[in-house]
Amino acid sequence: MSGPIVALKGVHKSYGDYHALRGIDLEIGAGEFFSLLGPSGCGKTTLLRTIAGFEDASEGRVLLDGRDMAGVPANRRPTNMVFQTYAVFPHLSVAENVGFGLRRSQMPKPERARAVEAMLEQVGLGGLGRRAAHALSGGQRQRVALARALILKPKVLLLDEPLSALDRKLREQMQHELRSLQRQVGITFILVTHDQEEALIMSDRIAVMFEGLIAQLATPEDIYNRPVDRRVAEFIGVMNLLRAEIRRNGSGIEAEIEGLGTVPIEARQVPGGLTGAATAGLRPETLTVLYEGQPDRGRVTHGNIEEETYYGDMTYYGVRLDGTDRPVTISMRNLPGRDILDPGTRTRVAWSPEALIFFP
Hints:
Blueprint (H helix, E strand, L loop, with lengths): L5 E10 L2 E11 L4 E5 L6 H9 L6 E6 L2 E2 L10 E4 L11 H5 L10 H14 L15 H13 L5 E5 L7 H18 L2 E6 L2 H7 L2 E6 L2 E6 L1 H6 L4 H6 L4 E10 L2 E6 L3 E5 L10 E7 L5 E3 L8 E12 L3 E8 L6 E6 L12 E6 L5 E3 L1
Parallel strand pairs: 3-8, 3-9, 6-7, 7-8
Antiparallel strand pairs: 1-2, 1-4, 4-5, 9-10, 11-12, 11-14, 12-13, 14-20, 15-19, 16-17, 16-19, 17-18
């Protein structure tokens, strides 16, 4: 089995007294779509720039395809980068932008022209090579930046929040197109983003970062369903948090949870053998508002609807469960014939103990 295409070993980066990266150990496989996710200032862009060679590590090693990059400048690394601003040259045509990096190669001019046209076809810009770059839409400029980076056939493509300037609908379209393109070309993509949904949609694996450290490294499913701590749980999507008490009962474990009562739970739901005071987490989609006449499903508690937010396909309810001092968020799909409930409505709420996650 071949080694990782990217390996970081004890990477630190300091700016005076400020520590942007604090001992990053990370391996990324060939052909992987990998995301660095976290809030502003967490170190994700610094880490990307350190891989690219735009920043030098204060300590530690960066290896690309098994080769130590110490002293290797950015333009000699097997990487290319797509920046947040795209950096498309407005005075050049689309084809000239895409072929810009090939000008110093030994490739004959007709062959360069064929390579540019083939790459434009691959990113959905076939036939637009002669168009002026300044006449392109935001989504087209993003494709030009991708084509210009990919035509040099890097082993690793680095993406610094490349979709953040697009409107919501175009951004969602480009997320799927970028993922599809990565599968076509088969090279490693490393994406920096602060958008949790974007990382979940596009990634094979995600590193969630806070304060220069990786808090959790896992698949999107594991990070969403099994966050390692409250900080990750609250950053990824919406998580309802309820006070709880965990007790060992003979060979079993039970939890007393505000608004939900006492339920048996499994050891896998309790990290590190946690007992005593704890916090129980439930995602909004694991709670269900039961309508009048609808039979109980599993465990049921009661509460009052305090808030209602309509999103077209979904409605989010803020429901204050009996015995709690703040509402929980419940997401319900808007199916044909399903009424939107008004604030003030008394309701039943179904839930399952298997959906619970516990934190210290």
